[in-house]
Design brief:
290 residues; alpha+beta; four-stranded antiparallel β-sheet; 10 strands; DNA-binding
Length: 290
Amino acid sequence: MPELPEVETVKNGLQSLIVGKTVKKVGSNNPKSFPNDEVEVEQFLVKVKIIAVRRRAKVLMIDLSTNYTLVVHLKMTGQLVFVDQKQRFGAGHPTKSLIGDLPDKSTHVEFTFTDNSHLYFNDQRKFGWVRLIPTSEVQNLAFMQKVGPEPFDAKLTPQILQKRCEKHQKSKIKAVLLDQSVIAGVGNIYADESLWRAKLHPARLTETLRPKDFVNLLQAIRESMSLAIQKGGSTDRNYVNAKGERGNYLDFAKVFRREGLSCERCGHEIIKIRVAGRGTHICPHCQKIK
DNA sequence: CACTTGACCTGTCCGC
DNA sequence: TGCGGACAGGTCAAGT
């Protein structure tokens, strides 16, 4: 669920909340969530200062003064939540509906800083992970090697997007957008939102798209994602930012989770279908297969 | 080789 | 009320 706008929002939050802090203690209850052994953690993470937080695609990178980096993938239900030592979630707190007192049963990694504040990695479904690796090796991770351009990279043009999509002529355009090697950071929410904005049916085969479609599509991806970043991302079920707060983009969504409501462009009813194995939201009038 | 489906997990919702 | 099954979706491995 966390896609580019959600991970970007977490990154921005962490930059102001944890950069400059020194790690005092690290605990984990699940080797799948945090596979590093105690020796590595003790040597390269404990008593170590956080110097930067970065994002590439849907991956977060927390750089440390030891030239090691904590690489984090939230996958579907992962959360990275910072809690000041005096702060309490729960009753009365605006985020109580999504987060209670931490740690809880979904907490798999707990970082304690020297000022007794905490960073919690929570993940209901345990698909996400945190890994400690040398900073110089981040770019060598298989995922980093094959991931495509960032949507907001000025060097990415509609022509380049078209060329990257052309490797998947027989695939449905939605499946291609979800392929991280084609373009970075698009997931189910912003694929649907972008295809609506570009007036393209998600099941259209890539080979049927024309140059103008890629102009519209790239613009649509950028518009939906920049609005989403502005609104703090989308909270469908689990997503929260680094302060434990939900995002508001879904109040502004055009089709995602809006089945049964009317399309704001033409008034026809938005429907939910299945494309490329994913729940998919479209306006059947604006988005035709042709 | 190109493309699709299943596995990884757990919580929630729906129908019986 | 309880229970089984479908569903949610990011990514990789396995299958067609």
